[in-house]
Amino acid sequence: MARHLRSLGVRTLGAIALSACVAFASAAWAVVPSAGAAAGSISLVAYSTPKPAYAVLIQHFAATSEGHGVTFAQSFGPSGTEATAVVSGLHATVVNFSLEPDMAKLVKAGDVSPSWDKGRTKGIVTDSVVAFVVRKGNPKHVTKWSDLVKSGVGVITPNPFSSGSARWNLLAAYGAERALKKSGAQATAFLGKLLKNAVAQPSSASEALQTFLSGQGTVLLDYEDDALYAKRQGEPITVIVPAQTILIQNPIAVTTNATNPAAAKAFVSYLESPAGQSAWAKQGYRPVLPKVAARFHFPKPKNLFTVQSLGGWTKVVKSFFTPSTGSVAKIETSLGVSTAKS
Amino acid sequence: MAGPGLAVTYLSLLVLLPVVAVVAHAFGGGVASFWRAVTEPEGLAALELTVVCSLCVAAINSVAGLAIAWVLVRDSFFGKRALGAIIDLPFALPTVVAGLTLLSLYGPESPFGVNAADSRVGICVALGFVTLPFCVRSVQPVLAELDKETEEAAASLGARPAGVFRRVVLPSLAPAMLAGAGLAFARAVGEFGSVVLISGNLPFKTEVASSWIYSLSQSGQLPAAAAVSTVLIAIALVLLLAIGALRRHFEVAEAR
Amino acid sequence: MRRRIVLRGVVLVYVSLLVTVPVGSVFYRAFDRGVAAAWDAVTSPPGLHALWLTVIVAAIAVPLDAVFGVGVALIVSRHRFPGVFLLDALVDIPLALSPVVVGLSLVLVYGVTGWFGRTLAGWGIQVIFSLPGIVMACAAVALPYVVREVLPVLEEIGTDQEQAAATLGARPFTVFRRITLPSIRAGLAYGVTLTTARVLGEFGAVSIVSGNIEGRTQTLTLFIQDSINNLNPVGAYAGSVLLAVLAFCVLGILGTDPKKRRLSWRSTSATSPSSLGTLLPSMASASVSQQDR
């Protein structure tokens, strides 16, 4: 029995000693800032969709003269979460979000200069559109927005209060109705019918894709580039660009406290250069440079509108996405109250 | 003694301070804005759904945990050790993998032909998956330490097995079962990753409280997120205090 | 006998449907495209770093939680100060907090703009978006388990042996080491197992406090999430298999058979005060003979 206790004591002491060593080693790590502040290093913070694209783009950049020897620390996640993290102190040199309001958070906190959108491409690095993702072969023949509100059609779109992608989706739906000469009230009513057909509203775009791929729903609303990536990975889907849809514009900027501004600016310049834009296009992102876009055959919707044509982000967030008072919030509440007890 | 002081400091740094920060942030805009955030209809629906499902799961797994612990301690058959080892695995699996797996097994493409996705049943299955280890492991060590002599004495005095179980074993195990149920409830109430995929996350129908909190935090309403979290903490605290009182009641009764 | 078989059957079915089949499915999908594909996925540089980081975090957070868990359990079971019931309930609070809230609250307190953040930054210490933050998040969410496993055992066995040993002249730490610790070993082992598994699998809080920097602050769970997002299921499931294997290892080291740890010299239930008088001599001789062995 005593030998048993002795071995227990030895094991305990050993465990404590081991943890102490490990703790000491990592304390050393803690004192040094965690994210790359070394020369020749770029800390890229971006929304989760372009991660595979960046893997390719960074390789191409490394082959250029400015990119030679530049190392990258990369962080990907939901656009809003990444933006909040940067404001809370996550080290970032280059930031790329899925929608402009997330960049505005950084401008407000002083992490990005207010003149970030004054450049040649107005601060936008890639375009995309809101697309319908359906089962391979489109068995239910979903092609128009009006198909989405038919009975028996299950729609999957993320929750607009936790996902930026959902906001693009709903604005596309609203704008599509307006493009068809419906009034604001009619377009809002359409949003209500669309959300009524929602079989799931996952908290992020990637969860929405997973939900759709698990067999739920008839149609998923998603970024075209995300859908094209899924298709390239072999998922049994068909991507349909509706005749009316919104132009998704993804902003990029170099932060004010970048430790290596020259390399960062060179990287962003590369991404916005014809070579970089071609590389983006091969990954499914619509180039922002018209000459490059002409070389690739992305489907051209008859009616492509922007957030600006709907009043700009500030106005849109206020009228649609403000909790409790925004029209989308009111739609969700009224749908919920009427169906909560069902 | 320095021990208790250190332990309490550790608890404070890791739990108390962050909780105080959350509560402070919740009331940052005043009691009126706290109340508004908390009585938001979508939030109330989420809270109701969460509490009801968590209570169900805690109750069911409490019983299941006792049964499983009983089989692990008192029974012996081929494969028992494997059973014992596998019980803890739901924990080691990241919640997102658990969610994905449960969705593929019990969702639309289920090989069993069931579809529990987008329903309360699906939520309960996911919560049951992540809370089962608590209920088993709470009871198991106590059951193992339990002296059989009292049971044997009661049996030799003529009590039937059911009576022995009800009057001798169950009261000794009740505190542990309650502790496990409390843990299960607390975990279920805060669970996010494994539930959100199979639930469908439909507002007012299958949106759980943690998902609502996540939405609030992502749409820039951190004080509202803190407010709803405070309510969840309060609910859990009340239940845990009640369970603690019940446990002590059983211990006093047992000692007599 | 029949009752036993029925119970066994019901338990096996319940556990199969709820645990075995889902866990088995994860293993199955990991090797869906062959063992080589799974191996490649987890031995990629980000995967290896994620594994190493996860092991380091567990190696720090689990002993911390174990030591302080036992301490808190001792306080709650042995001391009767007013408010002890509150401490008891407070220990479980991290569970009720959604992991996202745990992460956010840690940022609120220890972040650069947080309560202590500025002071810490002044000392050159970065907590959030660095290793200490990840360790704290994991330790916080797993805090209750050791307490909850050890406390019922401490309450079940009572303080009689400890009091007896103290009367015989043993110092507090010796009493703890030779009387208390052996009897809580089963509960402590289970508690440490649960804690380790929880720390290994923690995602929500870590996703907020780590910043998810690939190759720097990305734990295995974050790596798995990234793999899922990038439609790389093999990477995700292979990573999960790795986590499960790690958990299995810890289980193996700690052992799972409670019978081995049951102290055979405990003759009767030790919680009844009236029998203390008769118990003391037998316990004294038992502990003396223990020391001789």
Short description:
The complex is a heterotrimer of chains A (342), B (256) and C (293). Chain A is an alpha/beta fold and 342 residues long.
Structural key phrases:
heterotrimer; A: 342 residues; alpha/beta; D-Maltodextrin-Binding Protein, domain 2; 2 domains; ten-stranded mixed β-sheet; 13 helices; 17% strand; B: 256 residues; mainly alpha; MetI-like fold; 12 helices; 80% helix; globular
Q: Could you give the topology of this structure?
A:
The complex is a heterotrimer of chains A (342), B (256) and C (293).
Chain A (H helix, E strand, L loop, with lengths): L1 H30 L9 E7 L3 H13 L7 E7 L1 H9 L6 E3 L3 H10 L14 E12 L19 E2 L7 H16 L4 H13 L1 E3 L4 H9 L5 E5 H9 L4 E4 L3 E11 L6 H12 L1 H9 L7 H6 L7 E3 L7 H9 L5 H13 L3
Parallel strand pairs in A: 1-2, 1-3, 5-6, 5-7, 9-10
Antiparallel strand pairs in A: 3-9, 4-7, 4-8, 4-9
Helix pairs in contact in A: 3-4, 5-6, 6-13
Chain B lengths: L1 H25 L4 H8 L2 H34 L5 H7 L2 H4 L2 H12 L13 H26 L2 H9 L4 H30 L2 H7 L9 H10 L3 H34 L1
Helix pairs in contact in B: 1-12, 2-12, 3-7, 3-9, 3-11, 6-7, 6-10, 7-9, 7-10, 8-9, 9-12, 11-12
Chain C lengths: L1 H29 L4 H8 L2 H34 L5 H7 L2 H4 L2 H12 L6 H6 L8 H27 L2 H8 L4 H30 L2 H7 L9 H10 L3 H22 L21 H17 L1
Can you give a write-up of this model?
The complex is a heterotrimer of chains A (342), B (256) and C (293). Chain A is α/β, with parallel strands linked by helices. Chain A folds into two domains: 41-126 and 249-295, D-Maltodextrin-Binding Protein, domain 2 (3-Layer(aba) Sandwich), CATH 3.40.190; 128-247 and 300-337, D-Maltodextrin-Binding Protein, domain 2 (3-Layer(aba) Sandwich), CATH 3.40.190.10. Helices cover 46% and strands 17% of the residues of chain A. Chain A has 13 helices and ten strands. Chain A has helices at 2-31, 51-63, 79-87, 100-109, 164-179, 184-196, 205-213, 224-232, 261-272, 274-282, 290-295, 313-321, 327-339; strands spanning 41-47, 71-77, 94-96, 124-135, 155-156, 198-200, 219-223, 237-240, 244-254, 303-305. In chain A, strands 1, 2, 3, 4, 5, 6, 7, 8, 9 and 10 form a ten-stranded mixed beta sheet that branches. In chain A, α3 (79-87) runs parallel beside α4, α5 crosses α6 and α6 packs across α13 (327-339). Chain B is an all-alpha fold. Chain B contains twelve helices and no strands. In chain B, α9 (161-190) packs antiparallel against α12. Chain B is globular. Chain C is mostly helical. Chain C has 14 helices and no strands. Chain C starts with a helix and ends with a helix. Chain A binds chain B through residues 78, 80-81, 105, 159, 161-163, 198-203, 207, 210-211, 214-216, 321, 323-324, 332-333, 335-337, 339-340, and chain B through 40-42, 45, 100, 103-104, 107-109, 117-118, 196-197, 200-205, 207, 211, 214-216, 218-221, 224.
